[in-house]
């Protein structure tokens, strides 16, 4: 094992003593790596830079489209909101009109109710007056009452005839 360590150290020392050969070997490895990447890109037909640029353009286009959609939706919401406000205003105006009509109808109803109460009281008063008048007068015989009505009607006719002759 001691010999193998010495041999390794000798080899490293020999490589370290020739920097140009070391640099040339590293350069060759880098050139082979770059060439292999270039061949791989050429073979697949894609380049990460082009892919990134295309992806960035696509993201910008999507962002612009999303922004336009947001603007359109915002305008649509504004229009819908304005329509709702207008409809609400119309409904409020109609509600005020209905309230006014209802107040007028209630006033008319109250006035009519008072008039009906007044008429009911007047009718009741007339009934009581009629009932008390009938109770105060003795009821004449039906035939005699009819006779007196006929006599009065006949007397009224005669007096009208006399007046008509006197005028003429």
Provide the structure class.
mainly alpha
Give the amount of beta strand, in percent.
under 5%
Oligomeric status: single chain
Q: Report on the biggest sheet.
A: none
Radius of gyration: 62 Å
- Measured distance between first and last alpha carbons: 178 Å
- Number of β-strand runs: 0
Give the count of helical stretches. 4
At a glance:
With 168 residues, the chain is mostly helical.
Task: Please describe what this structure looks like.
The chain is mainly α. It has helices at residues 2-16, 19-44, 48-136, 142-167. The termini are far apart. The model has no long low-confidence stretch (mean pLDDT 81).
Index terms:
mainly alpha; single chain; 168 residues
SSE blueprint and pairings:
Elements (H helix, E strand, L loop, with lengths): L1 H15 L2 H26 L3 H89 L5 H26 L1
